[in-house]
């Protein structure tokens, strides 16, 4: 009898080429499939809620897979975590309805981007965008409302992306400012390739006074990728939650 499982996995993406399996190079999906195939003694293919790029981390990526195994979910989780590298950890596994699919049934996602405000050091540089120039957080707070709601976000999509629609809806953007760092949390029904990282770099330029709120709004309305604004690095980005 074929069973369908939903899994939640956390990972440090620093040493991986991203989520999606590749013919060469180490990926999160590739390591998980190889470990599951060895453990369950049958070919396992997993379906993630979406891709994360090289260097991007996750608190709670979701994937699903089907298997004929009779091993209980808790046992799969226990042994899987014993065999996986320390950079990947299974938080949760449960048996779900046969129709569940981690990607196609996802209703929304939360991403958080972390920016370190002080001098970098080896213990934080792989987990934050280290940026020591003074940023006016209030300017970012004032400008973020421009992105609320449903828009065509093609201006904030990486080039050579292949999607049917570039329209997405952002439900909220929250900014939390701490002594050493600040973080920007995005919640929406979906995000285009590099969309969060591109928006973050625009926010930084706004905070530096290099980009006005009005210019930012014009970029959104122009629906044309602004190549003058770089993409914030991957190491500060985390997939926080997938909503079903």
From TrEMBL:
Q: Give residues annotated as binding substrate.
A: 111
Q: Which InterPro entries match?
A: PsdUridine_synth_cat_dom_sf, PsdUridine_synth_TruA, PsdUridine_synth_TruA_a/b_dom, PsdUridine_synth_TruA_C, TruA/RsuA/RluB/E/F_N
The record describes its quaternary structure and partners as: Homodimer.
Residues the record marks as active site: 53 (nucleophile)
Q: Which UniProt keywords apply?
A: Isomerase, tRNA processing
What protein name applies here? tRNA pseudouridine synthase A
GO biological process terms, semicolon-separated:
tRNA pseudouridine synthesis
Q: Quick check: keyword Acyltransferase in the entry?
A: no
Q: Which reaction does it catalyse?
A: uridine(38/39/40) in tRNA = pseudouridine(38/39/40) in tRNA
Limits of the Pseudouridine synthase I TruA alpha/beta domain: 8-104, 146-244
Gene name, Swiss-Prot/TrEMBL: truA_3
Per its record, what are the GO molecular function terms? RNA binding; tRNA pseudouridine(38-40) synthase activity
What EC number(s) has UniProt assigned to this enzyme? 5.4.99.12
Q: Which CDD domains match?
A: PseudoU_synth_EcTruA
The family annotation for this protein states: Belongs to the tRNA pseudouridine synthase TruA family.
On whether ATP-binding is a keyword of this UniProt record, the answer is no
- Source organism lineage? Bacteria, Bacillati, Bacillota, Clostridia, Helicovermis
The residue ranges crossing the membrane are: none
Functional description taken from the UniProt entry: Formation of pseudouridine at positions 38, 39 and 40 in the anticodon stem and loop of transfer RNAs.
């Amino acid at each position: 009898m074929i069973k369908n499982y939903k899994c939640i996995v956390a990972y440090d993406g620093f040493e991986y080429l991203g989520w999606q399996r590749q013919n060469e190079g180490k990926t999160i999906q590739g390591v998980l499939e190889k470990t599951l195939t060895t453990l369950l003694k049958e070919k396992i293919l997993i379906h993630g809620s979406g891709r994360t790029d090289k260097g991007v981390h996750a608190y709670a990526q979701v994937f699903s897979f089907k298997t004929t195994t009779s091993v209980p979910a808790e046992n799969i989780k226990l042994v899987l975590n014993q065999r996986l590298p320390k950079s990947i950890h299974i938080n949760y596994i449960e048996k779900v309805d046969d129709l569940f699919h981690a990607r196609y049934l996802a209703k929304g996602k939360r991403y958080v981007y972390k920016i370190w405000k002080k001098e970098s050091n080896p213990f934080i540089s792989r987990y934050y965008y280290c940026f020591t120039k003074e940023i006016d957080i209030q300017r970012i707070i004032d400008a973020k409302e421009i992105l609320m709601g449903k828009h065509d976000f093609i201006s904030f999509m990486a080039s050579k992306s292949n999607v049917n629609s570039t329209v997405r809806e952002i439900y909220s953007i929250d900014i939390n400012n701490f002594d050493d760092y600040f973080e920007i949390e995005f919640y929406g029904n979906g995000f285009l390739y590099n969309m969060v990282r591109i928006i973050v770099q625009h926010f930084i330029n706004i905070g530096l006074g290099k980009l006005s709120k009005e210019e930012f709004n014009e970029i959104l309305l122009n629906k044309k990728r602004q190549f003058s604004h770089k993409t914030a690095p991957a190491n500060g980005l985390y997939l926080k939650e997938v909503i079903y």
